[in-house]
C-alpha cells in the first residue's frame, strides 16, 4: 500500500501543471493516443516476461530480493521530469526516450537467461526502440527542444558474479522497466486529457 501511495503521490502534483501548448493539436493528440496503446502493449509483454522469470527461476517477489539488489547496482531510469511541479512535455519526452533506449540495452540480459524466449525479448527490444523513435520523431515534428539527460539508469550490463545474480538482475530490470512504463503511460495519458 505504501509503495502504491509513493508511486501515485507525484501525480497529485501534475493536476496543477500548466496546460501544454500543444494539448489541442490534433496530430499531437493522435500521437499520444497511438503511443498510449503502444505503451500498454509493451507493459503487457513485460508482464509476460516477468511471469516467465517467476516460473523459470522462482523469482517472483521483489521484497524477498532487496538485500541482493543492493549488491547489483541495478537502478531505475529517471523520470522525475514527468511528475514534477514544473512538468514540461519536452523534458518528460526526453527522459522517456532516453529511458527506453537504456531498457532496450538492458533487455539483452534475457537473451542469455531465457534462450527459449528470444522472440519475446527481441519483440520487447524492438518495441522499446520503436516507441523511443516515435517520441524522438514527434519531438522533432513539433519543434520541441530535445534534451539528453545524463545516463543514470540502466546502462551497460555489469559482469555478474554468479548465475543467480544474473537472474536477480534480470528480475529487477523487468520490475524497473514496468514501473518506468507505468510512469510514462501516466504522463502520456495526462497530456492526452488536457
Short description:
With 194 residues, this protein is mostly helical. The protein has a single domain, classed as Up-down Bundle (Growth Hormone, Chain: A). The chain is 68% helix and 0% strand.
Provide an overview of this structure.
The N terminus is likely disordered. The chain has seven helices and no strands. The two termini are 28 Å apart. The chain has 194 residues and is mostly helical. 68% of the residues lie in helices and 0% in strands. The protein has a single domain, classed as Growth Hormone, Chain: A, CATH 1.20.1250.10. Pfam families: GCSF. This is MGF factor. GO terms for molecular function: cytokine activity; granulocyte colony-stimulating factor receptor binding; growth factor activity. Keywords: Disulfide bond, Glycoprotein, Growth factor, Secreted, Signal.
Task: Provide the descriptors you would attach to this structure in a database record.
IL-6/GCSF/MGF; elongated; MGF factor; 194 residues; GCSF/MGF; Growth Hormone, Chain: A
**Number of discrete helical segments:** 7
| Domain count | 1
Number of strand elements: 0
At CATH level 3, the topology is Growth Hormone, Chain: A
- What percentage of amino acids are in beta strands? under 5%
Order of helices and strands: HHHHHHH
Distance between the termini: 28 Å
Instruction: Please describe the biggest sheet, giving its number of strands, its sense, and whether it closes into a barrel.
Output: none
Mean pLDDT figure: 82
Query: Helix share of residues?
Result: 55-70%
Class in CATH? Mainly Alpha
Shape: elongated
Level-2 CATH architecture = Up-down Bundle
> Cα-atom Rg, whole angstroms?
17 Å
Low-confidence parts lasting 5 or more residues at pLDDT below 50? 1-20, 151-156
Structural class: mainly alpha
